[in-house]
Amino acid sequence: MPDAPGLPPLADQFSRRYWNLAREGTLLIQRCRECGRYQFYPRGHCAACFAPDPEWVPASGRGRLHTYTTIQRTPNAEFAADCPYVLAIIELDEGPRMTARIIGKADDIACERRVHAVFTAAGTADVLPNFALASG
Amino acid sequence: MPASWSGRVAIVGAYESPRRRAPGVHPFAIQAECARGALADAGLEMTDVDGLATAASFPAEGAREMAVAEVAEYLGIHPRWVDGTDIGGAAPISHAGHAVAAIAAGLAEVVLVTYAACGYSWPYGAPDYLTYAHGPGQWELPYGPSTVATYALAARRHMHDYGTTAEDLAAIAVQCRANAAANPDARYSAPISVDDVLASPVIADPLHRLDCCVVTDSGGAFVLTSARHARSMSARPAYVLGFGEALGQVSMNQMWPFTATAAAASGARAFRAAGMRPAEIDCAQLYDSFTITVLLALEDLGFCAKGEGGKFASAGELASGGRLPINTDGGGLSSNHPGRRGALAVVEAVRQLRGTSPGVRLDRPRTALVHGMGGSLSTSATLILGA
Description:
The complex is a heterodimer. By secondary structure, chain A is mainly beta. Chain A folds into two domains: 10-58, no CATH class; 60-136, CATH 2.40.50. Chain A has two helices and eight strands; from the N terminus they run H-E-E-E-E-H-E-E-E-E. Chain A has helices at 16-23, 77-80; strands at residues 28-31, 38-39, 55-58, 62-71, 85-92, 97-102, 114-118, 130-133. In chain A, the strands form two sheets. Chain A has a five-stranded antiparallel sheet with strand order 6-5-4-7-8, with no helix packed on it. A three-stranded antiparallel sheet of chain A has the order 2-1-3. Chain B is of the alpha/beta class. Chain B has a single domain (9-123, 213-386), classed as Peroxisomal Thiolase, Chain A, domain 1 (3-Layer(aba) Sandwich). Helix content of chain B is 33%, strand content 18%. Chain B has helices spanning 27-42, 67-75, 91-104, 147-162, 166-180, 194-199, 227-233, 263-274, 291-300, 309-314, 331-334, 342-354, and strands spanning 9-16, 51-53, 81-83, 110-118, 202-204, 207-208, 217-226, 238-247, 283-286, 367-374, 379-386. A nine-stranded mixed sheet of chain B has the order 3-2-4-7-1-8-11-10-9, with helices on both faces. Chain B has a two-stranded antiparallel sheet with strand order 5-6. In chain B, a hairpin with a 2-residue loop joins strand 5 and strand 6 (207-208). In chain B, helix 5 (166-180) crosses helix 9 and helix 8 crosses helix 9 (291-300). Chain B starts with 8 loop residues before the first strand and ends with a strand. The model of chain B has no long low-confidence stretch (mean pLDDT 97). Chains A and B meet through strand 4, strand 5 and strand 6 of A and helix 4 and strand 5 of B.
């Protein structure tokens, strides 16, 4: 059995700021001070060149739906009440990818659809940001 | 030019437990059953074993972090070489490769690789997560992933990029079920059709229940030794010609690209070590946690071009008369998947080279590839065996 429950996210020295600002409607990502690459998830170094202390920058919150799945059944009891829900990998316009749920209207969902961040909590874990399909 | 160690170590004993349901049985007892079976197959005693490898710290495997020490204690042995590498379902294949290096270096002479789990009956709970909600997992786990869902993400993107269909994926499940027909121990052996797969409940689209492996209580083990001593223990040693392993990602938001896996690297390493090409492989045991796992392996290992895996499967190339017969005992999709299929995939490859498969017996195959994929398309180990 895990030592910590599955929900919600447990903040640490790198993530506290991220989660606090997410609740205020800002999506933060990191950019390497040496090679200039953007990265997600946050950590204390650049995962491309290992330079220390990347800077935090606000992300546009816009991107494309790289892939997704609608989860109809889950063995994880704590998420069973959420079914069905759409789990997605978002590719931000800055480059990095992140995990989120797609919330709102999704009848015409497809890979590569434009998406934007929505600062609405979703699911049992009450986690945000999530993403919505751009209209049109 | 094969690697210096290619062909210098052989598998001389192999055993798969016939169990599929074992309520009330601790997985360590199945480990012991499998160890006994593999050693007996090689004509060896437990006292001959001087190297042990296992991974057993998933909940239904019964151990904690020092799994290999717990299992050694339970078996009652004090090996001089141990390996507890844990890279998910690929771990037993990784153990085989590491054992080859150890035996070639003189660090051990008889290595037992053993595995067991009560994936179905384990009564103490087993959350379907690879990470915690802290550290890297905090950006994934709270959104509610499951193992099936992470593979579904890869399947969806493969469909988008290459036009792969649900029917293509179903063809893999149909083939594994057909292979299980003759296997008396297979969890399921009644034939299924592509329509049956598509009509089974969607778990995480585009994957249906019949795109997913069975969940069993079982195990398997095998014994490796130097080629010098192999012939005295087995009439048909399976020589290790090549091996490679590789790591991808654990968090799905770190997978890049999304339609290729670490199998491309582990496979290339194994083929280079063996001095062989994919066309020289007579049969393969490809990790089939889900149908998409097989499809990606076919492409990444070089049996077909990237994007052609669906067509390869739908065209019947995975059948006994096709270009690459796979999972000849029914695989994890129909026969046996207690938790880490890797050990059982090695056992079936050995049986196939000996002509003793309980499923489809091919016409005297000379080479067999075993490929493991662990976690969420996270880790990869590839072994090439020769008769």
